[in-house]
């Protein structure tokens, strides 16, 4: 077996002496690459089995040595983030950061709870009674006051976080990826410029889509002030009534006839008698022609009768005139 350079720390092996005198054809190159790759993998496997191993229920386990080949980084080293205002203040005052325990004893419930997060210690929801102070205003709700103070603290913390982000960007540090996506609506690696400002119509369309993205299509959702109803094509699905009524028989008959007509048309080449159908068509056309002829003859008879009556009345009128003379 030829000698190969093997780096078990990276599970890598390569042959320094392998070279091509002239570039071969593609098919030959693929064949040579597969053969050489098989030899290198076999060399790595042999070197692994020569290492001291320990027994395990899943099989022998070996400890890989330290890598000997320095591989380049795919991405550059991240830039150090600038310190926040609190970190600057702690550095000036010499405040040391101490690691706190995650679990704290809660005296109200008598159990150990988390310091932060869900079901944390000193949760406002676990406080049944709040002791009044001399500085409290009469008639003020202490629970609402605590909620208001908490909301102010959260808003202040969010304001400080955004300020720290601005200072970090000014110092040259990149923004987090999710903020870049929200700001540009483009991939981070994209070279396109940021889109123009979103118009009012686009915002209304997006709001309408979000409002109708429910099981009821936004029918039972609370409407915002000034919100317009969602646009649709005015097409609704029609269903038969669930309860029996005056029109149920006709609707069921219509549905049954529709199904039967589909079945008959599908198997018409098997059950249709062509001669009988032609005869029925001829008889139908003949009846239709006779009816039209009878109507036309009846109209002409009415016209003749009308002319005769008109002549009679004119004669009567003439005789009366002569009498009056």
Structure description:
- By secondary structure, this protein is mainly alpha-helical.
- The protein has helices at residues 26-49, 85-93, 142-170, 177-184, 200-211, 248-266, 268-271, 274-324; strands at 5-7, 12-14, 53-54, 61-62, 103-106, 111-114.
- Mean pLDDT is 75; it is low at 186-192 and 318-325.
Provide a quick synopsis of the model:
Residues 294-308 have a biased composition (Low complexity). This protein is mostly helical and 325 residues long. The protein contains 8 helices and 6 strands.
Secondary structure elements and pairings:
Layout: E1 5-7, E2 12-14, H1 26-49, E3 53-54, E4 61-62, H2 85-93, E5 103-106, E6 111-114, H3 142-170, H4 177-184, H5 200-211, H6 248-266, H7 268-271, H8 274-324
Antiparallel strand pairs: 1-2, 3-4, 5-6
Short descriptors:
325 residues, two-stranded antiparallel ribbon, 8 helices, 6 strands
Instruction: Please give the count of helices.
Output: 8
Radius of gyration using CA atoms only: 47 Å
Q: How much β-strand is present in the residues? A: 5-15%
Low-confidence segments = 186-192, 318-325
Described by the principal axes of the CA atoms, the overall outline is flat
| Relative helix content | 40-55%
Order of helices and strands: EEHEEHEEHHHHHH
The major sheet is characterized as: 2 strands, antiparallel
The strand order across the widest sheet is 1-2
């Amino acid at each position: 077996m030829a000698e190969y350079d093997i780096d078990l720390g990276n599970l890598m092996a390569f042959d320094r002496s392998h070279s091509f005198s002239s570039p071969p054809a593609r098919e030959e190159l693929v064949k040579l690459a597969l053969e050489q790759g098989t030899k290198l993998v076999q060399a790595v496997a042999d070197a692994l089995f020569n290492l001291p191993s320990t027994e395990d229920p899943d099989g022998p386990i070996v400890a890989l040595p330290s890598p000997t080949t320095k591989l380049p980084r795919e991405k550059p080293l991240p830039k150090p983030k600038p310190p926040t205002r609190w970190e600057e203040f702690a550095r000036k005052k010499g405040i040391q950061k101490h690691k706190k325990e995650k679990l704290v004893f809660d005296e109200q419930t008598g159990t150990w709870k988390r310091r932060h997060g869900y079901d944390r210690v000193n949760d406002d929801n676990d406080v049944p009674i709040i002791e009044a102070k001399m500085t409290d205003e009469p008639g003020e709700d202490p629970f609402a006051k605590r909620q208001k103070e908490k909301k102010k603290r959260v808003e202040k913390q969010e304001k400080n976080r955004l300020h720290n982000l601005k200072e970090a960007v000014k110092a040259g540090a990149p923004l987090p990826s999710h903020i870049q996506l929200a700001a540009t609506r483009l991939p981070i690696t994209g070279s396109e410029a940021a889109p123009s400002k979103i118009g009012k119509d686009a915002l209304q369309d997006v709001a309408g889509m979000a409002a109708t993205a429910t099981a009821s299509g936004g029918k039972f959702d609370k409407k915002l002030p000034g919100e317009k109803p969602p646009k649709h094509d005015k097409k609704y699905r029609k269903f038969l009534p669930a309860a029996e009524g005056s029109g149920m028989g006709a609707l069921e008959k219509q549905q049954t006839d529709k199904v039967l007509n589909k079945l008959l048309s599908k198997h018409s080449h098997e059950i249709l008698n062509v001669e009988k159908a032609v005869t029925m068509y001829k008889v139908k056309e003949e009846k239709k022609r006779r009816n039209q002829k009878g109507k036309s003859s009846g109209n002409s008879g009415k016209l003749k009768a009308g002319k005769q009556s008109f002549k009679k009345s004119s004669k009567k009128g003439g005789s009366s005139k002569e009498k009056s003379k």
